Amino acid sequence: MRAALMFSMVLAMWHGAWAAGLGHPLDGLAELKAGSTERVSSCDANWVNGNGDARSIAPGGTLTIAELEGPGRITHIWNTIASGERGYSRLLVLRMYWDGEEQPSVECPIGDFFCMGHGVDAPVQSLPVCVTSEGRGRNCYWPMPFRKSAKITVTNEGRKRCDAFYYYVDWHKAPKIGKKEAYFHAMYRQEFPAVMGCNYLLAEMEGCGHYVGTVLNVRQLTTSWWGEGDDFFFIDGAKEPQLRGTGSEDYLCDGWGLRKMSNPYYGCPLMEGYEPYALTTAYRWHIPDPVIFKKSLRVEIEHKGVTFNADGSMRSGFEERPDDFSSVAFWYQTEPHKPFPEMPVGYARLYYDFSSEIEAEGLISNVIASMGPVQPQDGGYSGGRQLFWTPSEKGQTLAIPFDVQEAGMRSMLLTFTHSWDYGIFQIELDGKPIGHPLDLYSATVFVRDKIFGPIELAPGTHTLTLRNIGKNAESKGYFLGLDGILMGK
Known about the structure:
By secondary structure, this protein is mostly beta strands. The chain contains four helices and 37 strands.
């Protein structure tokens, strides 16, 4: 039902664009094209009998997935990845070089390029980027012309080997590329946290081109609404922005806040709410409305929203907040671009150092379950196993004691599995509920982090309790899978 609704929305928008004179998406498809259709992929060299259709990438290593001789246009890129490292999609860096340039025109963590930030895997459905398989099947359809050559690399800036990187790069080898066709660019930025006193800079470029899209990621560090900030576009050196916004959700084409959704030109595929440490990823594609610049462009957005006094009362509905911001800017330009600012390396792009995560299956000997066995379960989890609890009815509890050495305010990251026979759980700390109940049901199996806090913890022994309060109507059981626990600041 949801897929049919999405398809009808896409058709409606396409036909609306056609009626407005912007061209039908299938225009020209029947016209025979000169040149040839080409592909590079991770296909086994023994393509008749072999099935080793992936490449591994060692820590610090770089895999070249395409070296193409032009003229041509890349029309489609697909990949899927098997990695045992948490946050791998932020640790693998995608770079693209056009016509022998030394500085890449695309430099971006691979997850963020495919419209999902924070090192999270989640589905996305939009016109130029589609991600399926619970965030693991990544597709991009941005056209990428080049005249002489194209080179695409992936670098592993993590600490563990990327076990399997599968990929296609489909392209059209053309007799020529028109003079007006510009080069594709994508640049990642982050501020952890956003710098007070300055708007968040999405991108600043010099040259002639047009801006075609934004991916914006926010990890809020305080409660309530973060997105009252306006967007500003300074075109060709103007001192005042020619394009001025009315709020972050308005720039992202929604209204009265954001909610989880995916549409052809805008969407918010990740929206965890408005509690501290909640994650948001949203996108805005300027496909029918590119921002044209002849000399330069500077794109900013304010990091403003609801703020509070020390006593918890609301101070302002429109004031700067020091939330964690990161983004990808997408544009085309004709001339060689100026070098990108240096991108933070590896774990500097993640909020947590997962090397300090406690593997939950290692705690099994100390846990107390009111019903049902607690045992390790093998699978594609961190460390290769998870803690698996199988109560047969609701109202049951699983208590996990843990020790704290130093007093302080902490965040608590719990890594849960979602599956077809899992229940709904209220998380409690020392007998008090924290956060909202979590429905761990999913028709397909995937693993996702949930962050709670900030929590003030005194030295000594504490108890984390997972209380089963029921199950989704679609779920076949009340089970729970816990992969890891990480205490942060």
